[in-house]
């Protein structure tokens, strides 16, 4: 008889062909695709829980999920089996055993998201599926000044799409918000303990409006203080956003941004050639 094992999965995916992580009626999702593959491997229908739900079109380099399943397969067997059966836009980077009390969402201490903008005159071909092209030159200094105003704990109800939900808690803490320019590309690094629905994309969308000269950096405080008179956004397109890392063992920190392009080698090549 097989023992029940608790597995932790490190998942990467290109989100363009999926309606987000969560299972949706009449729409393809990352969760459904992985669960169907697990059924092929174990002949069991098991719910896989992720660290959070990424939106439709959003990517991941560091999504974490877990499940408990009765199987004779070990971690390596599952890793090999998953990557042999999954579509080529989903990769299981690592599989490991985890304690019964581990929960990919509730055990997490924070997340690091990256939003990428291509600010060149002409969009770069090899990176266009992971970045948003903006032709008009953006003022990085103005966006950096504004990003500092997101730091700390605030009521982020104006910067989310689930405003008005019953019993929703809108107070969130942003620990780091760093904006890096490399060649034609602008990287928005956001590290926080937790995030509301579309919160990162609303923050970035607001910064892009500031970077284009349509708003002053001080508008961030105005939105926090009086969201009725001052609106955030617009929400930035999903394809520019990637879940980069989920933190468990340590408090959330900002990964050395000089190393980020090791994970985005194509951006590094294009930037160097720009």
Describe this structure in words.
The chain has helices at about 30-40, 75-85, 140-145, 200-210, 220-225, 265-274, and strands at about 5-15, 50, 60-70, 90-95, 110-120, 130-135, 150-155, 170-180, 185-190, 240-245. It has 6 helices and 10 strands; from the N terminus they run E-H-E-E-H-E-E-E-H-E-E-E-H-H-E-H.
Short description:
With 274 residues, the protein is α+β, with helices and mostly antiparallel strands. Helices cover 22% and strands 27% of the residues.
List strands and helices in order, with pairings.
Blueprint: E1 4-13, H1 30-42, E2 49-50, E3 59-70, H2 75-85, E4 90-97, E5 110-118, E6 132-133, H3 140-147, E7 152-155, E8 171-182, E9 185-192, H4 199-211, H5 219-225, E10 241-247, H6 265-273
Parallel strand pairs: 3-10, 5-6
Antiparallel strand pairs: 1-3, 1-4, 2-3, 5-9, 5-10, 7-8, 8-9
Helix pairs in contact: 1-2, 3-4
Profile the largest sheet.
Answer: 10 strands, mixed
Low-confidence stretches: 269-274
Any idea what the CATH superfamily of the largest domain is called? Pseudouridine synthase I, catalytic domain, C-terminal subdomain
The CATH topology of the largest domain comes to Alpha-Beta Plaits
* Backbone shape: globular
> What Rg do the Cα atoms give?
19 Å
- Mind telling me the CATH class of the largest domain? Alpha Beta
- Helical percent range? 10-25%
């Amino acid at each position: 008889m097989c023992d029940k094992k608790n597995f932790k999965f490190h998942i990467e995916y290109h989100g363009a062909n999926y309606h987000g992580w969560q299972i949706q009626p009449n729409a393809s999702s990352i969760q459904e695709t992985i669960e169907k593959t697990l059924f092929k491997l174990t002949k069991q229908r098991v719910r896989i829980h992720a660290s959070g739900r990424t939106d439709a079109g959003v990517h991941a380099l560091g999504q974490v999920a877990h499940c408990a399943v009765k199987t004779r397969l070990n971690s390596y067997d599952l890793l090999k089996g998953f990557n042999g059966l999954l579509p080529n836009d989903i990769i299981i980077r690592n599989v490991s055993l985890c304690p019964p009390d581990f929960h990919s969402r509730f055990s997490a201490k924070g997340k690091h998201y990256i939003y990428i903008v291509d600010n060149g005159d002409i969009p770069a071909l090899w990176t266009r599926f992971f970045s948003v092209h903006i032709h008009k030159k953006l003022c990085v200094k103005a966006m950096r000044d504004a990003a500092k105003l997101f730091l700390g704990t605030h009521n982020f109800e104006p910067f989310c799409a689930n405003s008005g939900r019953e019993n929703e808690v809108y107070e969130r803490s942003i620990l780091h918000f760093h904006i890096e320019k490399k060649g034609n590309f602008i990287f928005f690094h956001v590290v926080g303990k937790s995030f509301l629905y579309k919160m990162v994309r609303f923050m970035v969308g607001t910064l892009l409006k500031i970077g284009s000269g349509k708003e002053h950096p001080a508008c961030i405080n105005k939105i926090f203080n009086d969201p009725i008179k001052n609106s955030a956004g617009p929400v930035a397109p999903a394809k520019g956003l990637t879940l980069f890392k989920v933190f468990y063992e340590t408090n959330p920190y900002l990964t050395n941004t000089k190393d980020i392009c090791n994970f985005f080698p194509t951006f590094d090549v294009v930037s160097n050639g720009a």
